[in-house]
Predict the structure.
Amino acid sequence: VQLQASGGGLAQAGGSLRLSCAASRVTFSNYPMGWFRQAPGKEREFVAAISWSGGVTSYADSVKGRFTISRGSAKNTIYLQMNSLKPEDTAVYYCAASQFWQDILGRGRLPNYWGQGTQVTVSS
């Protein structure tokens, strides 16, 4: 497994969760990485992205101001701090890595590498 996501679980509306994604290959420290999510019956959608340096981030409008993506000092681990959670945030969350920034933003091809997904459930 090249990308290992963890940290999902059950939270109440208004609560917080923190997701982590650890990359097993040092190569990923030079890749943009990000998070996508897929709710039941819906397509996978972009959530957040971070550049290889950690200096540039991007968010979906639906999570802007509530979620924060960050990158560890070794650059091969990313985090997603999710605050003010809403029931509509319920989904399986996937971390991803790609050589191409547009792919991590969900605007091009699908990213090359994916984690296994972690379930986030927000109750009202």
About this structure: The two ends are 34 Å apart (CA to CA). Residues 101-104 form the longest helix (4 residues).
